Amino acid sequence: MNTEELRKIIASGENEQVEFKARIPKQDVIGRHLASFANTAGGTIFFGIQESAHIAGVDPIRTKAIVEASLRALSPQITHRLEQIEIDDKIVVAVVVDKSPELVSANGSYYARSGATTRPMKSEEIELSMRSDARSVMKLADSIEQQTEIIEILRKELKSANSFWPKLGWTIGGALAGGLISLMLG
């Protein structure tokens, strides 16, 4: 991300996919935000920017260490990337989080984004998401079963093609054809 892109994001303010943090909060707070982005539509946390659009900057080494510790509290792990952007002689650290195909928990609890707010998920939302994940697993299991059946058929066909009798038939057929050709030419 370049400085121009960051300025546009700052000007637009926080929303369902953007969170600003002037300072580095506790690990559990960061974990909640990361899980909420993964459970909703993905998003980015910018450390070193105040909600008022003031660029405060952060210590990138300390920020990255706390973010990495926060990531270890998530289950399952999420797809993310850390970016460091220099703007107005200050450092902003961005954590870009992809939407997860699975429901992600932070310290055993589930979170989602509603507008610019991270909130605990309702039990109905968790149940719906879990059912959706279960259907995906069932579809995957069916697909694996079908592929296993195809592999078994192909294995049998290969075994049959490589057995002694078909090879003997091809050898005898080739010898007879060769003998006939040599008689015709000779």
From TrEMBL:
<feature type="domain" description="Schlafen AlbA-2">
    <location>
        <begin position="14"/>
        <end position="122"/>
    </location>
</feature>
<protein>
    <recommendedName>
        <fullName>Schlafen AlbA-2 domain-containing protein</fullName>
    </recommendedName>
</protein>
<dbReference type="InterPro" id="IPR007421">
    <property type="entry name" value="Schlafen_AlbA_2_dom"/>
</dbReference>
<keyword id="KW-0472">Membrane</keyword>
<keyword id="KW-0812">Transmembrane</keyword>
<dbReference type="InterPro" id="IPR038461">
    <property type="entry name" value="Schlafen_AlbA_2_dom_sf"/>
</dbReference>
<dbReference type="Pfam" id="PF04326">
    <property type="entry name" value="SLFN_AlbA_2"/>
</dbReference>
<feature type="transmembrane region" description="Helical">
    <location>
        <begin position="164"/>
        <end position="185"/>
    </location>
</feature>
<keyword id="KW-1133">Transmembrane helix</keyword>
